[in-house]
Structures are given as structure tokens and as C-alpha cells.
Amino acid sequence: MEAAEKANVSTPLIKRLDLSKGDKFDTMLQGVLDVANLPDPIGKVTFANKLDEGLDLYRVTCPIGVLLVIFESRPEVIANITALAIKSANAVILKGGKESFHSFAAISRLVGEALSGTEIPPGAVQLIESRQEVSDLLKQDRYIDLVIPRGSNELVRSIKSNTKIPVLGHADGLCSVYVHGDADVDMAVRIVIDSKTNYAAACNAAEGLLVQRCALKSHLPSLAKALIDAGVSLKVTPEIGEALKEAGVAGTGSATIMSAEEKDFETEFLSFTIAVAAVEEVDEAIKHINAHSSKHTDSIVTASKEIADKFLNGVDSSGVFWNASTRFSDGFRYGFGTEVGISTSKIHARGPVGLEGLTCYQYQLRGSGQVAADYVGAGGKKEFKHEQLDM
Amino acid sequence: MEAAEKANVSTPLIKRLDLSKGDKFDTMLQGVLDVANLPDPIGKVTFANKLDEGLDLYRVTCPIGVLLVIFESRPEVIANITALAIKSANAVILKGGKESFHSFAAISRLVGEALSGTEIPPGAVQLIESRQEVSDLLKQDRYIDLVIPRGSNELVRSIKSNTKIPVLGHADGLCSVYVHGDADVDMAVRIVIDSKTNYAAACNAAEGLLVQRCALKSHLPSLAKALIDAGVSLKVTPEIGEALKEAGVAGTGSATIMSAEEKDFETEFLSFTIAVAAVEEVDEAIKHINAHSSKHTDSIVTASKEIADKFLNGVDSSGVFWNASTRFSDGFRYGFGTEVGISTSKIHARGPVGLEGLTCYQYQLRGSGQVAADYVGAGGKKEFKHEQLDM
């Protein structure tokens, strides 16, 4: 603590770093126990097929291998990630924010001591300290199987462009809410306010609001007033600006109404600002979102199941919500217990990633001396049975 | 044909390019019909969780998006890949081997005509011609979601190092067979011969043979004789060379016995050559394979389930086989109907990849106006129910 104060670390950061503050330590401990209590993700048979008599194929979940996890400076994170890695039988190399290095080193030493009494090799969990080590390790695509960067967009982007190792994570959280003309106004207001203001710095907070053109009189004024009352500034298209002027809605205090530029619809404000535009129909909303969003989470508010289905099937994001806040996009809320991160990739795991995202699978074939040459396609006459086996 | 002959294309290649040869056209047609008859891979609910009353979460399979597929010159391949892409609702950009460009263009025109009578936009399947186009497209990681290179190791390697887009495929097929001391000798011989000689140019052919040290007298001579009789050259460690000399096994004709260098255990011969070494125990076999193989497919021959389980759980390859030829590692043999390719990656799809590998999923949340702020963890008191829903 004193060292942190001397090093001119800001007070809110010091608070975040102090593990003895409030119930932080107990929460950390509970997090580890929660992971320990999750079902074992390894060795599960997810597909089984009898190829022939005495020739059975099983798809079995297994660890990915060696993970490189780069994370922020909250000291409790190292305990959670270590627990997840051990539970999923992966080896992990950890690099945390430099402000907490001494806490990390102490926790890491304890982890090593605890592991020494088990069958897990002590080298399965390793802590590194410097950025140079990270950049050296990013070159080791033969030995490291997955990189998980948690932290700023810049960090994630820089890692993605500096490695051939697959990266699990998300650089941006550009989420939107689309309010259809038939939406209940109060419901739309609640969802938009929660999506924007519940935790504006989160990746699942809304950065854009789309309103159906036919709702510019019926819905837009209430939405805009509620946002301004909550302290949110609006960046609006000329059409929205005009509609607000007609409805007599104006900014107050720090919550202003400004003209939006094109880039505002691709900006992650992470603050009390939202970009607002009108669209003619749900199709245009889908098109706008697919063109501008980061494929994280987008929500529609509508009374119509048909319109909702169109939106849910048309929007190419990891989370597509109907009549719910974008803020529900989260591993804990989804019921995964804990999350490794949120992925906006469309390969491997997508959306909030739990333990399952730290596993892959292998095909185990259990035979009794069979050779391919006896079967059709490889020179022989025998036909495969291909009967699904009971798992 | 005449153009091909004029362009000095080799006769075996001309045969492979000629779609009117034998039953090639009918096989191609059947392949397309087979894909059409596969179950629809899109829109399947793979996880469903009631977060709260009227707040239901569904994980639903969806297409990946835009695929870039680079493939060899066999003209039937374009029909198969197009069928797979359409079936999985992905858009696809196709680049085939230049020798078949005119066939590809003709098939592609027919695909376009067929699609024009459907709801599928004609641009969903596009053919490109030049390498320059490929290298331009490899930079479009914002618009292309997955690259699938099929072809030579050099092609796959060069693509992997020239794009940020995820790549599904395999550069190497370095497979091994390990013969444990308790193996039935005849079974071991059949499996080794099939793994090596059934189709030596395939990625699932064995390139390495490991024999337990205690079996150098009981098993090795039969294995070596059978290989040499089948025309296979052996590259052997000094220990193996010594054992063969003692047993009086020598090369004949083109099937020679040579000293192995370290690099022979990491060489994909793709021909009638195999590298042979002795290991003390199954643990050493596992270590050797994990250090040298390309994580494709490795097989153990043993009478012991316990030893087999150790091998299957210890070898980090996409296929781990017990008492079966490595040649079974194949989408058709696994019962997937058809395969897009074989992946040695541990992220996304692994091993032979069927239609499933061309899908991802999104989380659809269907609510009734819920906001996060009402729930624990985001400022409220409501608890999540997290009850698994019937799918």
C-alpha cells in the first residue's frame, strides 16, 4: 500500500488493489470454491459412434494445453484464473497488471505450495513479470495453444496483431438497442436506460440506440428525456435532432444533445454518451447493426414475436436479445458460474466463455485390430455400420 | 483436355481433372445429394437456461459468415464445397487450382443459375481466379470469418502466416503407431502395414513406428519384414539397426534400411518410408509422440486396456486410436457423411471436420422487459433462477 502510494498510484486504483478491503478476500475465496464445485469439464463423451463391430469412436473433451492469460491488476483475478486453469487441466502462464506484482507473486507462491502436495506438476501454473516476456511468448505458437487477453481494447488489439496463436477475447463492445414502433414505451425506456447506465464502462453497455421512424413521436421523446435525466448525452442524426426539437426535448447540464458523426456509430464511448439514429424497419436496423456493431450483444424491444425472430436470426452478434437489457450478456447472469471472458470471435467459443471454452476434444477410436483396407473407400468391401452409441 | 495436353500438364493430373472419366460425374452428383440429405446444422438449440420467469436463454447454432476456401484442382471439389457452404448457410468465396479454372467457371455459372431460383442471394457463392485476389482477401479479416485451405503443406503454412483470419486446416500429418510389448504380433503387423501403405500420400498415413524395447526380438523382426516385403524403406535408430541385424532382417530392392537422423522423426515422407525407434515404456512413447507428431492421429497396439487408456489420455492428438489403423481418421469413416477438411488446431473444430465445423452459435435471450439493475450483482436484489430448460 505504501509503495503504491509512493508510486503515485491513484486512490481508486489503490482501493481496487487492496485485497484486505471489505469482503474482497472472502469473495476471492468463494470464487475459487465455486470453480472447484463446477462439474469436471474434462473426459466427457460428447459423441459416440459404432463404426463397426468392435470399432467404437468416442469424442472426448480434453484440455487445450498451454494458456497464456494476460489480465488486469485486480489481485483476486489471479486466483480465479488459476482455479479455472487447474479445473480444466490446462497449464497456464499468467501475466497480471504490474501494479499488483507483489500480490501476484505471493498468491502464485501459495498456489505452487498447494500444488506441490498434488499430482499436478508445479510448473503447470507460472507467473511472468515483464512485457518483454509476453512478447517473446506470443511468438511460441508451437508451444502455446491459446492467448486470453483481458483488459483494454488496445491491449487486445495489439496482442491480436502480434501473434499467430489463437486469441480468445474481444476488442470492442459496441452494443445497440433497437426500439420497434410497437414496443411498450415504458419497457423500452427501462431497457435503454439499464443498457446504457447500469455500468457504462462495461463491454455489454449500449453505445447506440435505433428507433423506428414511425416511433419518433410516440417513443423517442420519452427515451431521450429519460436518458438526459439519467445524465446521458445524445449524439444524434439530423432527423433525430429535428424530432427532438419538435418534441421540445433539450439537453440539461452535462447531458447535452449533439450532432452525430458517422464514426459515433462505431465508437465505444464507455461513458454516459449514446449515439441515436432512426431506421425505417427492422431490416434496416439489422443492416445497421451488422455494419457497425462489434458483434457483441444487441437487443430489440418489440411486442411482436415475428419481428423479434427476424431480428434475432438476422443480427450477427454473439448475443441477440428480445425485450431484455444488453447488460444480461455475462457469464454469471447466463448461469455459467464464472467466465473466462467474452468472445466476439465466431470460431471456437462465442459470447461469455465459461470453463467449456478452455476445453477441446479428441477422437478416441477403440478397435480390435481393424485396418482401413478391409473397408469400402480404401480398397475393401466391408461397409461401416455408423450406429450412434449410447453415451 | 486438349488445352491441358498443350499446356504440358502431366497425364495422371489430366486424368484427375477429367470429370467425364469413369463415374466421376455421378460420384460428384451423389456427393451433392448426400450433403442435401444431411440434417440441417443451423438453428439447433444446444443449451437452454431459464434465467428467471419470462427470461429464457437459448444457445442456437448459426452460420459462421463468409468462408474463403482454397482448394486443389479436382473439379468435383467445387461442387462438394459449394453444397456444404449452402447447407450450412455460409457465404463462400472459392479459389480452385488453376488447371481446372474453366471447369470451375462452368460449374460456378450453373450454381449461380440454380441459386437464382431460390431465396439465396446469388453473391453467396463466388469464384475468384488469381493468387493476387487470394492475398488481397486474406487481409480482409473484418469481412471474412474463416479460411479453409486444402492442399499442400506449403500452401497451408503460407496462408497461416499471411492472415489474421482464423484458419481451419492442417499443415502436417505426422502420424505414428506404437507397438507395446504385449501386442498380438499379427495384429500389430496388419495395423502398421495398413497405416503406412494403404495410401501413403494421405495425411493420416503413418510416418513413424515406435516399438517397446522389450519387443525388439518378439515383434520388431516381423514388423520390419512385413514393411520391407510391402516395399517400405526403414529409417532406423542405431538400436533398431542393431536389433534388425541380429534378427537377420535386411532390405531388398528399393526397400532399404537406413540410419535415421533426428529430423526423420519430424518428416512427413508421404511415400513408402517410415522412421523406426524403440521406447522403454508407454510413457516414453507418449512423450516422443507429443514432442514430434503434428497432433493429427496416433495409434497404439496393445492387449492391455490400462496401457491403452494411458496412451489415449496422454497423447495430445486429434485422433488417438487403440488397436486400429491411423487411416480410419477421416470424416467419411467417422460417419460424418462428408468432410470439409481435417483440423490439427485445438481451437474450434478438431480432427475430421464435417458440416458442424462450418457453424458457430449465438445466444438468444427472450425476455419480457427485464433489466440487469433489478438483479444481484448489478445493484438489485432479485436472484437468478438458472434452471435448465427442456430443449
UniProtKB/TrEMBL annotation, chains A, B:
Catalyzed reactions: L-glutamate 5-semialdehyde + phosphate + NADP(+) = L-glutamyl 5-phosphate + NADPH + H(+)
User: Pfam families, from UniProt?
Assistant: Aldedh
Q: Which Gene3D superfamilies match?
A: Aldehyde Dehydrogenase, Chain A, domain 1, Aldehyde Dehydrogenase, Chain A, domain 2
- State which residue ranges cross the membrane: none
Q: Which UniProt keywords apply?
A: Amino-acid biosynthesis, NADP, Oxidoreductase, Proline biosynthesis
Q: What is its EC number?
A: 1.2.1.41
Q: Which residues form the Aldehyde dehydrogenase domain?
A: 53-227
Kindly state a single biological-process term from the GO annotations of this entry.
Answer: amino acid biosynthetic process
Give the enzyme's main class according to its UniProt record, as a single word. oxidoreductase
Q: Does the keyword Oxidoreductase apply?
A: yes
Please give the coiled-coil regions recorded for this protein: none
Q: Which GO terms describe its molecular function?
A: glutamate-5-semialdehyde dehydrogenase activity; NADP binding
Query: What pathway or pathways are given for this protein in its record?
Result: Amino-acid biosynthesis; L-proline biosynthesis; L-glutamate 5-semialdehyde from L-glutamate: step 2/2
**Family membership:** Belongs to the gamma-glutamyl phosphate reductase family.
What the entry lists under HAMAP family is as follows: ProA
NCBIfam families noted in UniProt: PRK00197.1 (NF001221), proA (TIGR00407)
Q: What does this protein do?
A: Catalyzes the NADPH dependent reduction of L-gamma-glutamyl 5-phosphate into L-glutamate 5-semialdehyde and phosphate. The product spontaneously undergoes cyclization to form 1-pyrroline-5-carboxylate.
| Protein's name in the database | glutamate-5-semialdehyde dehydrogenase
Species per Swiss-Prot/TrEMBL record? Lipomyces tetrasporus
